[in-house]
Every structure is written in C-alpha cells, then in structure tokens.
C-alpha cells in the first residue's frame, strides 16, 4: 500500500480492502441489482447480514452471552446521554474519572440526568508530562450508580492502560477511539460504548455493549431510540438503523478477522506506537507532552520545537500524502491517529518525513 496515509482522528481512515469491497457492491448488493442502502432493514438478507456483523463482533471481542450488543444512533456523544438515562436514576450519584476532553464532555452531559456527578480525580501534570492521578487518590462514592471513564483520550493522547476498579459500581467505558485495538476483558465492564468513526466505520453510528442486569432501569423520560432495553428487545431495529454504517462496520469486522483478530491488531498497534514515540523521544525537534506510562497507542500528539513552523510542516506533509495531522483545535500542534486501519508503512512514512523536516529546519 502506498500514500496517501490518512492520520485523521475521526472520521478516520478505513481499511482499503473494505472500501474496495463496498465499492464493488455499491450498486448491486448480493446480486440484488440495488444498493444495500436501498433495501428494507426488515429484509431477510439485511437482517442476516446485520446479525452476522453482531456475531463477528461478539467473536472478535469475546463478548460473553450475558451482554447485549446494540447498534445505536448518535455517535459517541449520543452515549454520553444514553448511559446516565439508562442505568442511573434521576436522584442518583455517579462517579466519573476526568482524564481529558472527552471525559469532560461526558461529565457535563451526565449532569443533565442525575442528581450528582462526582468527579473522582483525573489528569495531572507531572515532571514527565501529562499523567493520571494514582488510583489510591480517587474519591470514589460508596453509592455510585456507575463509574465512567475514557480509557483513551483522543484529543489529549492520554490513556489508562489498566482497567480501573470500583468497590461497588459497574464500570462504564467510552471506548470510541480504542475499541478493537487490542484484547479486552469485556466481563469487567457493565457498559462499553464507542462512536464508530475511529476504529469501526462511518460516523453517527455507535455500538453499546450492555450487561443484561443493567437493562430495565431507564429513566421514564428516556428517548425511546436511546433506550437500551427497547433496543435490546428490538435487536437494534426499533426504528430504522443506520443501515449503511451497520453494513460497513460488518465489513470492517470481517477484515479484522482476516487480520488475525484483536490480538494481532494489538501487536501491530504496539509496533506502530513504539516506532513513532521512539522517534519523537530521540529527537530534540519534536516533543510528546504525555508521561510515557500514559501514552495513547491510537492518538499521538506532538509539538514542534518551533511552533511558527506548524503550517509549513502540515503543508509539506500533505504534499507527501500524509494527511490529517493537524492537532485538535483545543491543544494545537500535531496529532497522528494510528488506528487499526493505519498500516505500519504509514507510520514508517510519517517518521521518515518528520526526520527529513527536522534535518531541513535545524
Ligand atoms: C470522537 C469521540 C467521541 C465523540 O464522538 P461523536 O460520534 O462525534 O459524538 C466521544 N468520545 C471519544 C473518546 C471520542 O474519541
């Protein structure tokens, strides 16, 4: 595979093989003469495809039987509202870890639906960079309805690599930018969710994986399309699902199986991240602001020693086919997102480019 390589944080790169297959099937899905976007979601062929996508995801993630897999509307942020409405009562306290930008949006949203959002702790600045406060300092509530955290902060490039524990509350995780990137012990969670556009498929779509005992608790005024219990009962077809996104996500799951599943992806992702961080650490021209123990394997922010060269860096990168490297508007600098679909060669090309740019400008 050759450039362009798309380092966009999301919507992000999709595997080329998946795009090619979607292109081949676009105008005539399974010989029907019409597109998968043009058929009923109740059509037996569509239902069969949709259920296979769920089965493939279950197999990839080793999702236990006592979890529902829901294909939802509204992306990652839709789940920021779905979680408190579905598994907490209006007078409940909920615990949130605040590790960065996305945690903060989730906290603000939860505050609309529950009596108290207790922020237990979060990101801290240390001599070695941005980190997360040690677990023993977290102020967990004894009566929290759930404990929410974001294992991979897409904007900040900060990750929590261990699964945290709460003495009493079910664990809820926003895995929008880390789902399927490595093996995961799903059984440790009450709810896992992800907007699709980082590691799965098109935007506007989300996957929620919900343990059965957390169903049946939705607040009375929960929007029906966001109600986990209704969507579980209706197999995510209470209303018309995003059929195109579901189809494309299914192709990505098949592609992941062909790649050897999440264990193989995890090894490949580790190699990609090591290559990029090792180069950044070896250079005086680039800097990553995150403590080595808390660095994301998916989103690598970096700063140039001379920020007045940022625009020149981005323009030169784009000329080489290295796209989407501009950092988030909240933090500036650069960010390379290296999700599952990014091949190792893309990261090699990026590091080669960064080295050349450094040599020219120092
Ligand atoms: C992108 C992202 C979101 C928001 O997703 P939308 O689909 O735009 O609502 C939430 N959480 C994390 C961790 C993300 O990376």
TrEMBL record:
Top enzyme category: transferase
Keywords, comma-separated and alphabetical: Amino-acid biosynthesis, Aminotransferase, Cytoplasm, Pyridoxal phosphate, Pyridoxine biosynthesis, Serine biosynthesis, Transferase
Biochemical pathway: Amino-acid biosynthesis; L-serine biosynthesis; L-serine from 3-phospho-D-glycerate: step 2/3; Cofactor biosynthesis; pyridoxine 5'-phosphate biosynthesis; pyridoxine 5'-phosphate from D-erythrose 4-phosphate: step 3/5
The UniProt record lists the keyword Transferase: yes
EC number: 2.6.1.52
Binding sites annotated in the UniProt record for L-glutamate: 42
GO cellular component: cytoplasm
Residue ranges annotated for the Aminotransferase class V domain, each copy included: 5-350
Highest taxon, organism lineage: Bacteria
UniProt-annotated location(s): Cytoplasm
Pfam families: Aminotran_5
Protein name stated in the entry: Phosphoserine aminotransferase
